[in-house]
Fold these 4 entries.
Entry 1:
Amino acid sequence: MLYHFLYPLAADIRLFNVFKYLTFRSIYAMITALAVAFFIGPWMIRKLEGLQARQVIRTDGPESHLKKQGTPTMGGVLIIASILIPTLLWSDLTNKYVWLALFIIVGYGIIGFVDDYKKVVEKNPKGLTPRQKMFWQVLMAAAVATFLYIIPEFSEELFFPFFKKLHPDLGLLYIPFVTLVIVGASNAVNLTDGLDGLAIGPVSINAATYMIFAYIAGNFKLATYLQIPYVAGTGELAILCAAMVGAGLGFLWYNSYPAEVFMGDVGSLSLGGGLGTLAVLTKQEILLVIVGGIFVVEALSVIFQVGSYKYRGKRIFRMAPIHHHFELKGVAEPKIIVRFWIISIILALIAISTLKLR
């Protein structure tokens, strides 16, 4: 909204010309997201405590987690608010890609909110059934995929890092592919959210990485020079990415070990879905496997654990997702968290290096 109100004044007051620049608006979107998180964070935590929205800890998990019993959850509401407000303030609201990303972030947040509310407030341990959650996730992701398939300016080609000439056209198969990316990313982040700050750290790093790719993908000269797909209008997504980084850091202020609040499904589903959508809109879907490698490994550890136990009667890990495996091996929770952050930074650097390695 600030962009639409203040940038037109640049014709008379040159100072407002800064609103033309994505870099300026991205920086202040990040600062605004941090400010929102810091300002409403304590109030939000008190409200969650008043609702009795407290985390229920599984008794079959690591014993060290039992002390987390009663910690407020559903803090993802704070994250979504911290993303939504600065994005609406600093973005060009005529940009369809911004609205597509917000649709998934808010829509998946609502799914997670309903599930969390049923579990922790209404004390219904089942919450939404896995089938119900998957239905709504697939429906929303498929709606975005179908929209992208219909609009003529968006390509159904798939681009691979390190290979500048490898970009097959998926045609109609692009719809299920996009759906899989968004739903898969959402649930992978959800599985990673098991330790204090474990998920929000890599999410912020991923968002910062896609901020760079969004800026370049929306700039014809840079995209052409670096030989990545140019998608007109995706530059505005850099502002949303910056807001995600700011919101993530703001939430980490309260979620770092020992956590004052957990994000719950309302946070993890929305953030994962948002990252998947950003990967799709910037035409860097395959890159998400690299930059989001932590989430991929966490999801695969669950898949392999379940498959191995079902077909072999044996477990591969002491407990899945894999961060619990390391806990049961005696590695301290803060050490696991920081090491996963370090790995996420390394993977982000590798992802950024693909801009020149083509």
Note: The mean pLDDT is 92.
Entry 2:
Amino acid sequence: MEFNLIITGVGGQGGLTLSRIFGNAAMSEGYNVRIGETLGMSQRYGSVLSYLRFGEEVYSPLIEEGEANLMLALEPAEALRNARFLGKDSVAVVNAYPIHTATTLVGKEKYPELDEIEGAIGKICPVYMMDFQREADKINPRTLGVLMLGYAYGKGLIPLKKESLLEGIRLTLKEKLWELNFRALELGIDLAKA
């Protein structure tokens, strides 16, 4: 068994923390885990990309183009930017909450329409796209990644046990943040089943 995950977003959204939660969850089930990261100006809303691979025998964190099993995209334009990792056997879960860059805000670049992003990714693989940020805001804005993790789990896209995901949260976050993130995981699961 081998599982390839791409987590993409912009600095400040918690993508790196999410990769640690997922990695700790996989390790708690005894899998070998490899994580690699590509960071833009992560403190300034630059691109952040995490590669996470786990399985019986995994030696490199890098995922070849078209080989991701799952993409969790915390920002829609970043999903489009990293669509090269998706293939016909992939699934994308995309947050439909744009974060505009300075160049799109001043009109130097056009931010793609959300339906264009969904359509382009949908030509490659199945895509679940919704405003996960709005849902996370009901608990705490910083729970976005865990909520999306719960959604992917609820859709049957993650080959790990729920107990392992909870353990990943415990091993990664400070204890005072556990309850918030447990609630976010449950809300994501509920959204997937709605």
Note: The mean pLDDT is 93.
Entry 3:
Amino acid sequence: MNKPSFDKLTFTFVTREEFIPVFRELRPTVFSENNDVDYSTYWSEEEHTKFKDLQAMCKTEVRSYLLCKDGEKIIGWSFGFQKDAEEFYMVNSAVLPDYRNLGIYKHLLELIIEKARKEGFQIISSTHHASNNAILIPKLKFGFKIMGMRLHPRFGTLLDLHYYTNEKVGKVLDYRTGYNKDLP
């Protein structure tokens, strides 16, 4: 397959109703080698019920769903939601294998961050497999900072990243970690 020109691609924010069927269809293609374990299969009926009740109580106000298309073909996406008054969480981003290394992911990242910044979020956060260099490297180059590492029964070893929309706040973090000796 010939790779398309980046200029001919379209990037569009869509509704949840438009996004979810696309995500369900394409996710297995992009993450076919993922060894996630759905640990909810071990839950009791009561635990499933309580989980659904807790989900219903979480009324997230801001959600963003971004699709990238080559003509009518969906080739990439990014989506996330408001965690609180300060933080936007990037849940998932992907580009189909035949369309990688064209700068599509970087542009998805730029668009989602710019939208979150305009909405007033101070922190954009994300979580990734510790070995997912295809995402970690572009995010670190963009200015995300590693906030921690943790283990999760579904995903394994994860890195938590934060991006600060206010550059001075990011520099305060550098000061607090000892990376920089001067406050901004």
Note: The longest strand covers residues 73-82.
Entry 4:
Amino acid sequence: MTAPNQPTLRTFVAYVEDQPGVLNRIASLFRRRNFNIVSLNVGRTHEAGISRMTVVVEADDDKALRIEANLYKLVNVLSVEDISKQPNIVRDIALIKVKAPPEKRSEVLQLCQVFRARALDVGPDTLVVEVTGTQDKIEGLLAILAPFGVLEMVQSGTVAMTRGDISSAAKSIAQERPRIAVA
């Protein structure tokens, strides 16, 4: 277990207005405050006009509080929550193109099955696989595929959600916009 003042990866969920320039303002805030973004993912929510950002940053407790406070200062930010210490589900997706000539293809596919990865494309000497999971799982698959020759790899930003009931950030949005059903 890490001490409270030791930097760890922190996951923030921010609900923002779906407007031009919001991502730029948030990225600029991180740049100005010298906070390094490890992962950033932005996508639509089930509510029109609202996007959800998942930002992963290396920060200690004090820095995490400052990040949250600074995000709340931005006009288009509706709600922010640090979900790092709550039970949560965290996923990334990666596409990996690996050398897989016909004589090695079945071996590569068997290794992918262990990681619950699936083949998306088969070329004459390549295979593109998709893997979804934690960063450790993706890195594990990459390490196993490295001897075959990883030709390309792309990875999404992290998406995260708290387990159980509606999160406090989502509940805050639901209270502001009564069209969302709150459980």
Note: The chain has two domains: 8-87+163-176, 90-159.
